[in-house]
Amino acid sequence: MTNSIGELEKDADCIFVIGSNTTENHPVIGMKIKKNVLQNGARLIVADPRRTDLAKIADVYLPHLPGSDVALVNGMMNVIISEGLADLDFIAQHTEGFEEMAALVAGYTPEFVAPITGVPAEDIRKAARLYAESGNSVICYAMGLTQHRTGTDNVKSVCNLAMLTGNIGRPGTGVDPLRGQNNVQGACDMGGLPNVFTAYQAVTNDAAREKFEQAWGVSLPSQNGLVLTEVINKAHHGDIKALYVVGENPMMSDPDLEHVGEALEKIDFVVVQDIFLTETAKYADVVLPSVCFAEKDGTFTNTERRVQRVRKAVSAPGEARVDWEILCEVATRMGYPMNYENSEQIFEEIRTLTPSYAGISYQRIENGGIQWPCPNEEHPGTPYLHKEGNFSRGLGAFTAIDYIAPGELPDEKYPLRLTTGRSLFHYHTGTMTRRASALNEHVPTAELEINPEQANALGIADNDLVNVSTRRGRLEMKAKVTDTIAPGVIFTTFHFTETPANLLTSSEFLDPTAKIPEYKVSAAVVEKI
Amino acid sequence: MITLTINGKEVQTPEGSTILEACQQAGIPVPTLCYDPDLRLAGSCRMCLVEIKGRPLYAASCVAPAENGIIVETESPGIVAARKVILELLSARHNFNCQVCEKNGNCKLQDYCYQYGVKESRFNYGEPTNYPINDPNPFFERDYNKCIMCTRCVRACEDITIARAISVDNRGHHAKIATAFDGNLTDSPCVFCGQCVMVCPTGALTSKVSAGLGRSYEVDKVLTTCSYCGTGCTLELNVKNDRVVGVTSNRTETGSPVNKGALCVKGRFGWDFINSPERLTTPLIKENGEFRKASWDEALDLVAKRLGEIKTEFGADSMAVFTSARVTNEENYIAQKFTRAVLGTNNVDHCARL
């Protein structure tokens, strides 16, 4: 997030939520947005193919079709420019590339965009005016925006929108990705990515690499590595011989599970380090028992860049060991001794190599956590980025982005758009929540959400068993007939091993930059059983 | 600033403060039940009554403004007598079975009845309340036979979660907390966040997941960060005999900067996977398609040996590591260091895209 969670409750005058079912996936952030809207009078725009809880209280609800985000945002920008609502001073002082972007969106009139998005032109106008004219406007998004072949384009589009109206660099403004996992921000910050060390220092940058070579006393590879989806594809070709998985479950979370399973089987040696025998662990040659958050010390970094303590509360079960200890043991046995007394000692090493974390220490975050960047011990942390329009790259870059249709559009055989997501009562691949007694008792199975119009046409009633199929596979589940989903779209969750939704999704269409799969659009067909 | 006298002591408080706030700033304890600093004021339980010299009526200090020159008594004989009657009224339909109550030892009603010597209620009229305790949700119990109608749950639902699932039904002695049409929570807008459980001062609302596992005075509370979504809510793991038996809220600004104690259903009630019998407890090695238990030495030696062999035979880039958005920063740092420095490849990624 460029800004902070608390600002959504207090400082934002208008909140534009796109591709985020906030009250289910980030419930406490959802509460803050609701409070601002219902008690402080903030305005709310929600763009989502599902009429989420937030959509129900929105001033403008845009039920756009999955995959039509760029068209929708271009349409809003068209209105803002043509009605003179753009912040020309901000654009002139702090940005570049405006003319090219403006020239492109000139073609995206609301009337042009309406049939692509399924949203009435007048609603696009209303949303654009509300966002541009409310004072401090903020954009919140989640995987509904990013899990598309155009995920990067989608994010750049909402950045265009924020810069166009000068809604960046003040409390209550900004572009706020709501990140879906407890420490996904930290995993990225720590260089758990194939192209960067900690704090996004590129592995291809000689100076950065030399710094780490010196600190670690080894020479390091200078080529970018493979992203997760590429690893699976290469494994499928037989080019990956060893895979070491720490607390991940690709056999539930990755697209096209049949393909993933085949890939894992082709790998000579698979190690899985986890707290349960996950769907992925079943493919392992060696399984190493690790501990959960309650059994270790460390830090997590949340979606607003706040580094907070994790504290050990209980002993590990049986012989299970802390993840870093296990990795250090393997490293040492491979001839590279790695010894740390505790997690704090590791954090101290991180600080010396990670400029944005340099000022953070366990002592400083004992009470309350600090938001990076925090370059030195006197620095209080950074609640919002790009203050007064000062972007990290100098000038904020507009990008002219044309709409590209999803990779798999409905056709005669597969006439619906399947989109996937999470339930309030479960988390990601269900490894934890399916074993949390109350959560699993309350929501034990997946459902397929389908619009009454579609259901009627197919002779499907609420709770009927249906088959949902895509080009990858078929699943049987209960139908939930609901008008909270747009006609032509169906939805299910991916938490359930009995009905793994990612058997249906495709790994064919990846975003060219981020290599994110297009989870949110698969052409599908539903039949009553 | 406003200057007033409380229990004979001169106290200064910022303009706009209530008498209760002035007392709290001066370190003078005043009993409260319906008052909660994060919720709209109700002024309904009357426990916080104080005497203001020269005024005919006692004032509820949580809603009474602090005024210049007033002389306040918080524990005068008259106030103590009034509080005893109030406690009797509040507990007129309270089921005093403290010995089996989850909240025993952590119940404000129990504390105040003990403090003021109230053992039973004269206002019971021999008509025991008998609200059914049968809400079928798996998360928390609703036992309105212990409810004192402070309405903190209603206000938490309205002001923190904004779910608006519950309200006050009926009036007078028959008033009770209910969903629309007095049904089950599952048929209401309730999202089972348990903010109502967090604020309930008695045993009317208690966690079913923690039931029978430990009283508040038996547990140690360890402040940590939730392991579900990326919001970064902090919570307290309740630990008894080296076992997590529940989750409670830390409601302070420093302990809970993101959520100030508010949690969702997963954070508050989704913790017992920690104690699952399915947890992995020893290393496993696959032989002939079946896993067998192994010692750490055997498993680690095998991993190191095989990774070394594959590196030699096929090169470093034939290997990859998936690190995790679930584990700590320190562990992610070690995982990428291991991949780059030991395996010698940049093939390290995690589920940021998934």
Automatic annotation (TrEMBL), chain A:
EC number(s) given by UniProt: 1.17.99.7
Record domain Molybdopterin oxidoreductase: where: 2-332
Sorted UniProt keywords: Iron, Iron-sulfur, Metal-binding, Oxidoreductase
Pfam families linked: Molybdopterin, Molydop_binding
GO biological process: formate metabolic process; respiratory electron transport chain
EC top class, as a word: oxidoreductase
Identification of the protein by name: Formate dehydrogenase H
Organism: Sporotomaculum syntrophicum
Gene transcribed to yield this protein: fdhF_1
UniProtKB/TrEMBL annotation, chain B:
Alphabetic keyword roster: 2Fe-2S, 4Fe-4S, Iron, Iron-sulfur, Membrane, Metal-binding, NAD, Oxidoreductase, Repeat, Translocase
Compartment(s): Membrane
Residues in 4Fe-4S ferredoxin-type domain copies: 138-171, 179-210
Pfam families attached to this UniProt entry: Fer2_4, Fer4_Nqo3, Molybdop_Fe4S4, Molybdopterin, NADH-G_4Fe-4S_3
Location of the 4Fe-4S His(Cys)3-ligated-type domain: 78-117
GO cellular component, one term: membrane
MF terms in GO: 2 iron, 2 sulfur cluster binding; 4 iron, 4 sulfur cluster binding; formate dehydrogenase (NAD+) activity; metal ion binding; NADH dehydrogenase (ubiquinone) activity; NADH dehydrogenase activity
Cofactors demanded by this protein: [4Fe-4S] cluster; [2Fe-2S] cluster
Domain 2Fe-2S ferredoxin-type: 1-78
EC class name: oxidoreductase
Alphabetized PROSITE patterns for the sequence: 2FE2S_FER_2, 4FE4S_FER_1, 4FE4S_FER_2, 4FE4S_HC3, 4FE4S_MOW_BIS_MGD, COMPLEX1_75K_1, MOLYBDOPTERIN_PROK_1
Keyword Iron: yes
Enzyme Commission code(s) on record: 1.17.1.9
Ranges where the 4Fe-4S Mo/W bis-MGD-type domain occurs: 219-278
Protein name according to UniProt: Formate dehydrogenase
Species annotation: Sporotomaculum syntrophicum
